[in-house]
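Field log, afternoon session.

UNIT: design team B
ACTIVITY: writing a sequence onto a fixed backbone
BACKBONE:
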């Protein structure tokens, strides 16, 4: 598996994975992925040895130099490839980018997604809020989680 910047040629496969994983909660459309890439976020593709997309993740970057903020907008791994460390690799790569900017990271996660919550907590995220009926149309609740800003020097030390 290798990580590389998400390209427009990957979007069709992203949409297929979205439909598999998030069918009950308005999976992202191709237009949504195009808009995210147009906005200039930090999006990554996880590719298998044959170059097929098996996962993706995206970090929105907002603010100005010295006052950056980031939001983890999406992270997903094809069901056939879950449990192999791909989600962890994607998350760590996004967090490395946030660390380069000394930026905090904010995300929302379904309250019933114990696997994702545990992953985020292992990487320094804390629950800071609850968004009732955040996911639609299912009406599932979400935790808001935050990882404080870290400078690259703190991570290396």
């Amino acid at each position: 598996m290798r990580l590389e910047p998400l390209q427009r040629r990957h979007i069709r496969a992203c949409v297929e994975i979205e439909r598999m994983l998030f069918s009950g909660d308005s999976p992202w459309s191709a237009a949504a992925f195009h808009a995210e890439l147009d906005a200039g976020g930090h999006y990554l593709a996880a590719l298998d040895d044959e170059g097929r997309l098996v996962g993706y993740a995206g970090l929105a970057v907002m603010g100005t130099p010295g006052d950056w903020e980031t939001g983890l907008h999406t992270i997903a791994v094809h069901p056939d490839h879950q449990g192999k460390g791909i989600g962890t690799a994607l998350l760590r790569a996004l967090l490395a980018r946030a660390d380069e900017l000394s930026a905090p990271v904010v995300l929302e996660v379904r309250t019933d997604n114990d696997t994702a919550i545990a992953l985020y907590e292992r990487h320094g995220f804390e629950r800071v809020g609850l968004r009732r009926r955040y996911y639609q149309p299912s009406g599932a609740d979400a935790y808001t989680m935050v990882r404080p800003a870290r400078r690259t020097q703190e991570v290396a030390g």
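LOG NOTE: Helices lie at 11-22, 30-38, 86-100, 114-122, 152-156.
NEXT ACTIVITY: expression trials, pending approval
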